[in-house]
């Protein structure tokens, strides 16, 4: 059963990746708009993530950073979570799984809240954290 669920999940991830590769969220209406931005005009921590994913799939790292500065570190953190066992096994390393450290949720929450506040400040250098148009 677990193998079937993993296979279905992998197919969904591949399907979403193909969708975001082919269609640019900045140009197609099928992608949902941010409710927080629609209601307040401010940017939530996730604003620009769909466009950042599209840019990442096209290896446009400047676009990723421009749309959502936190997207790339978050993606690398998640990638580390899924690859640290393989890295440990392959290279004989002893990397910990940072996801399961007691303080990790608090650190992630603090980073996300600070990013949310900072990207809505109208002054330089904070205003560069807002998604590019």
Mean pLDDT: 92
- Residue stretches low in confidence (pLDDT < 50, at least 5 long) are none
Structural class: mainly alpha
Rg from alpha-carbon coordinates: 17 Å
Helix content: 55-70%
Q: Give the SSE order as H and E letters.
A: HHHHHH
First CA to last CA: what distance?
44 Å
Largest sheet: none
List how many beta strands DSSP finds: 0
* Count of helical stretches: 6
| Global morphology | globular
Classify the beta-strand content into a percent band: under 5%
In short:
This protein has 133 residues and is mainly α. The chain is built from six helices and no strands.
Characterization of the model:
This protein is mainly alpha-helical. It has 6 helices and no strands. Helix 3 runs antiparallel to helix 4. The protein is globular and about 45 Å long. The relative contact order is 0.10. The mean pLDDT is 92.
Keywords:
133 residues; mainly alpha; 6 helices; globular
Show the helix and strand layout.
Blueprint (H helix, E strand, L loop, with lengths): L1 H21 L12 H6 L8 H9 L3 H7 L3 H21 L12 H15 L15
Helix pairs in contact: 1-3, 3-4
């Amino acid at each position: 059963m677990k193998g079937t669920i993993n296979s279905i999940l992998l197919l969904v991830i591949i399907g979403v990746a193909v969708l975001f590769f082919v269609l640019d969220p900045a140009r197609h209406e099928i992608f949902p708009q941010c409710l927080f931005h629609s209601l307040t005009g401010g940017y939530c921590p996730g604003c620009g993530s769909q466009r950042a994913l599209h840019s990442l799939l096209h290896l446009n790292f400047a676009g990723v950073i421009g749309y959502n500065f936190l997207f790339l570190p978050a993606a690398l953190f998640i990638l580390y979570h899924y690859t640290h066992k393989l890295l440990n096994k392959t290279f004989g390393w002893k990397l910990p799984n940072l996801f399961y450290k007691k303080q990790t949720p608090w650190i992630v929450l603090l980073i996300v809240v600070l990013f949310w506040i900072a990207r809505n400040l109208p002054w330089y250098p904070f205003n560069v954290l807002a998604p590019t148009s």
